[in-house]
Amino acid sequence: MSKISLLLSSKRGRSENWINKQVQRLLDAAKQNPFQQTMYSSHLINLKILIARILQYQEHLAELEQNIDALAKEIEEYDLIQTIPGIGHKIAATILSKLVAFAGIDPSCFCFR
């Protein structure tokens, strides 16, 4: 499995077929790169830095998702909302946060009107 496939497979809910199509699209796009022969080393350095940044952002997002899931699991309605077809972890947590905000019981949100 290529590095690209491994990165894409970390996304939840993606089929092997979808991953393979995306990898092929990326490889085809890379082959059509007009700057392939005239690439400067500074471009490669910048590209490596940008890729490292994206990977770091993915790690931070994964950590935030874990924190959100952990906080949402403390609310008993979290599991109940997920019994609705099409409602997963993220949407259930979003619905709960909206309900808490709408009810005005979020202690971290002080809105003066």
Helix content: 55-70%
Q: Identify the quaternary structure here.
A: single chain
Low-pLDDT segments, ≥5 res: none
Sheet with most strands? none
The total of helices stands at 5
User: H/E series, N to C?
Assistant: HHHHH
| Distance separating the two termini | 55 Å
Describe this structure in words.
This protein is mostly helical. The protein has helices at 3-9, 16-31, 41-73, 77-81, 89-103. α1 (3-9) packs across α2 (16-31) and α3 crosses α5 (89-103). The longest helix is centred in the middle third of the chain and has 33 residues, at 41-73. The termini are far apart. The mean pLDDT is 80.
Care to give the gist of this entry?
With 113 residues, the protein is mostly helical. It is built from five helices and no strands.
